[in-house]
Amino acid sequence: MPVPNRRRSPRDLSAAVVGSGPNGLTAAIALRATDLDVTLFEAHASLGGGVRSEPGPRPGYLRDVCSSVYPLSMASPAFKAMDLHRFGLEWAVPPIAFAHPLADGSAVAPVTDPEAPEGLGPDAVAWQRGVEHKSDRLELIAEHFLGPLRLPPPHPGLLKFGLPALRSSNALCQSLFETERARALFAGAAAHAALPLDKPVVAGAGLVLASLAKAIGWPFAKWGTQAIAQALAALACKLGVKIATGTPITEAAQLRVYDIRMLDTSPRQALTLAGPEPLAKGVIERLHHNLQGPAVHKVDYALSEPIPWRATAARQAGTLHLGGTRAEIAAALDRVWAGKPAAQPFVLLGQPSVADPSRAPAGHHAAWAYCHVPPGWRGDAGPAIERQIERFAPGFGDTVLARRVTLGSTWAGYNANWVGGDILGGAQDWRWHRQPLGGWRDPWCLHDPDLYLCSAATPPGAGVHGLCGWHAARSALRRNRGITLTLEELRSVCGTAHPEADCRALRQATRLQCG
Known about the structure:
Blueprint: E1 14-18, H1 22-32, E2 37-41, E3 53-55, E4 62-64, H2 71-75, H3 77-82, E5 91-92, E6 96-101, E7 107-108, H4 124-130, H5 138-145, H6 159-165, H7 169-176, H8 180-190, H9 202-215, E8 220-221, H10 226-239, E9 242-244, E10 260-263, H11 267-274, H12 281-289, E11 295-303, H13 312-316, E12 317-322, H14 326-337, E13 347-350, E14 365-373, H15 382-392, E15 400-406, H16 411-414, H17 430-433, E16 445-447, E17 451-453, H18 467-481, H19 487-494, H20 504-507
């Protein structure tokens, strides 16, 4: 049963959610859990935002269009409360979460045995104490650091995470590790933030991701990333959310009839959809000038056989960090932030078929690789990406049956949120995500009580976890109905939605109306 209204409302409230990424779908589910009339709009013919899969780059293969590796999804308290596995979501966990090949032909990985070829040797204890022990407090970390900022921290143990997380990756590596192997391994994890490694708070990204590798691994979604969007949409439909695909929202007038407007969009789109609302001056300035992150140049591969990595550990890892030493990774990121492509880029490579054989025909493999380039850059980084792969896997080119290249400058044509090819919703640093839009304690509210931003441009930032949508929906419910929705209440409501073996509504035509 829906959570009862704890304060009288003069009328039933309606809500519009614009965008069907994980944050938009999560926000719609949370709002509907309190019995609001919720309609979700998606401009694309299919749901998911950056969480979509499609055939290719050759018949029989399946590629993830944008996001692909999901430690944050598997650990998300919001996703856990929604119990998405009941709607078909399953995780495929590789034997090794991530590995970092080195120029000498070896690779380093976060394995527990310091004597293993891919082990950390003299830095194994430092890694366990300084990085992996954070996994013991993941729930507390998620509650405090992945939501509204609260000072002082509610639990003293959080200081053991919070203080190191505020440092730069370079500073943490220098103080914590003795060997360049360990420093390279941590730098590769921290580089997922797509920020220079000498910037404050970048260590936090490395600590969270590396601790998740210990706690749960870095999984892929079985049968492709689209399974996450389908599970969220199936739950939303069963709860009564109305969903309209192929329905772009381009002006504020389209949303005028709704009491609450929830935008899973870029900040610049939010300005357009706000219409004549009297937004605070500071909010307007920040929406205009949010710091844009680098673009992504991505290549999807159909392979005839596994990638011929020189290091054994690399063959078992779902994710590879290709950049060499910590200094090389830092130099590549610095060059991109200076507005120039890197000749030796830091490359993130995924090989999902290591854990999920559905991605390629029997005996064959699927992989993808991407590097960061300056926003809007129209050049081709593909040759530089493949030079980095060949550096650690000689003969890789001989295994390639087909490629599908996505230039950094073309992402915005696929998803209007990805301005300039920035797929993370803006630079993932303190200057954007912890400065207030609607205030330090409520950065999701753009106009009280009816306009909210729930995309990755709000805390806790990029990643497929649904928490931006969860916190934005809770803000709207507090302001409009005096309700403080809890995860336990969300779990209770979602538990009443019984999935069907065949969710026909999600597999039929491109425009669907459920509820």
